[in-house]
Specification:
The protein has 20 helices and no strands. The chain is mainly α and about 425 residues long.
């Protein structure tokens, strides 16, 4: 059988396997193994192909950034810095209609600069912000929607695990991707704040009485100076990367050490908390590692079969153009977001789409941020909105339902779609700082 035919059949096989419920990494690696076997006719060669791709993928120096930033994010979450940030910001916005919602967005943006994981943000602020907003009179659907919607900033504002994953998959610069994420991250944060402010003016009943915008004693217990560790940690990591003091991988190590040191010095991380952080870091890293191995095998098999070259030739000859391709690709990614998690979507689509984007002259950093934005919309859309599930699971004891969180998150998903369109049409939003 021709290699190209095998490649296209393998794509169909991967889709069928994933929709049948097979783990994404197993589907990618298994179908790729069968594909190489079918092309070469030799099982031993196919097994060696898979083994080499697996070892090369996680032996890459760049991959070391994954466990380090995961460790930093979990240490920050465990030390309670997210709660401190929310209390301090909420106190400053107590006279702003919808101020607790705005405080949640701003706190998530600050928290995102030191975590890089949307799920961590969703879990932290579901526990911290939702009870305070509901106690202040905010409609519960609005409260849970704000948390779910703003949690996606964790994967957009650098450091971001998805941007690191994109860099590993495409051999792109992690530092350039981090710089490119600043513009869309700030734009999305501003869009959320404008939406909540306008909603607070038009429908004030959704946010309770203005004088109760800050629950008694909620933010007053947290000294204002506690914002300094958060700002200092974010500044240390990001300035070190952008100023060239250290590489992103080294920045992850510095950030992880600083986050743990802060937690220990503040007496918020002891042996029990440290063990829990180490376990969670291992679990997340192992899961990401397994996915990257599957994606690496899949990408090499596709290249060997000639499928990317075939599709690239078709795309460039069809006259679809860069804009048309980005819009179609974004729609595909958002559709996959209804059934797959964000990492899996990237692992399935990026190895196939990146060569096309490069051939069409699309900047890798621009394409990376468009991809991450489109993927993140899937965290808020049914039936598999991962951030929504995390918020609901965290608040299950309070009676919050999935439907309630999905309804509250819908306006934020729509705002994200609008920002995605702007980023596609105006690459300067991404590239101004990345160059």
């Amino acid at each position: 059988m021709e290699a190209l035919t095998v490649g296209y059949i393998s794509l169909a096989g991967i889709v069928i396997a994933i929709y049948a419920g097979l783990h994404v990494a197993i589907a990618l690696a298994g179908v790729s193994l069968l594909g190489v076997w079918a092309i070469t006719g030799k099982l031993s060669l196919a097994l060696n192909f898979v083994a080499l791709a697996a070892s090369d993928s996680i032996a890459d120096y760049t991959f070391g950034v994954v466990p380090l930033f995961v460790l930093m994010g979990l240490a920050v979450a465990e030390s309670g810095l997210g709660r401190d940030t929310f209390d301090i910001v909420a106190r400053r916005l107590r006279r702003w209609r919808g101020g607790l919602g705005v405080a949640t967005v701003l706190s998530n943006a600050i928290f995102a600069a030191i975590t890089g994981i949307s799920i961590a943000s969703a879990a932290v602020f579901a526990r911290v912000a939702v009870p305070e907003m509901v106690r202040a009179g905010t409609d519960r659907s609005i409260a849970v929607g704000v948390v779910a919607g703003s949690s996606v900033l964790g994967m957009l504002i650098p450091p971001s695990l998805l941007l690191i994953l994109f860099a590993v998959l495409t051999d792109s610069s992690v530092g350039a991707l981090f710089a490119g994420g600043v513009g869309p991250g700030l734009l999305l944060t501003l869009a959320y704040i404008v939406y909540l402010t306008v909603l607070g003016r038009l429908r004030p009943q959704l946010f309770g009485e203005l004088e109760s915008a800050l629950p008694p004693g909620s933010g007053r217990r947290t000294p204002g100076w506690l914002i300094l560790p958060v700002a200092g940690l974010a500044g240390l990591v990001l300035s070190g990367i952008y100023l060239g003091v250290f590489t992103p991988t080294e920045a992850g190590a510095v950030g992880a050490f600083a986050a743990l040191a802060l937690g220990i010095l503040m007496r918020r991380i002891g042996l029990q908390e440290g063990w829990r952080i180490a376990q969670q870091t291992g679990h997340v890293t192992a899961a990401v590692c397994f996915l990257i191995i599957g994606a690496s095998i899949y990408g090499r098999m596709l290249g060997y079969s000639g499928v990317p070259q075939s599709i690239t030739t078709w795309a460039t000859g069809s006259g679809i153009g860069p804009l048309g391709f980005l819009f179609l690709f974004s729609l595909l990614v958002m559709a996959l977001g209804t059934v797959l998690d964000s990492s899996s979507i990237m692992l399935v689509t990026v190895p196939l789409a990146f060569p096309i984007a490069r051939e069409l002259g699309i900047d890798p950093v621009h394409f990376g941020l468009v991809t991450v934005l489109a993927v993140e919309i899937g965290l808020l859309t049914p039936p598999l909105g991962l951030s929504v599930f995390v918020v609901q699971a965290t608040l299950r004891d309070t009676g919050v339902t999935l439907g309630e969180v999905f309804r509250g998150a819908a306006p934020f998903a729509a705002i994200m779609a609008g920002v995605l369109v702007l980023v596609i049409l105006e690459p300067a939003i991404v590239l101004t700082l990345a160059r």
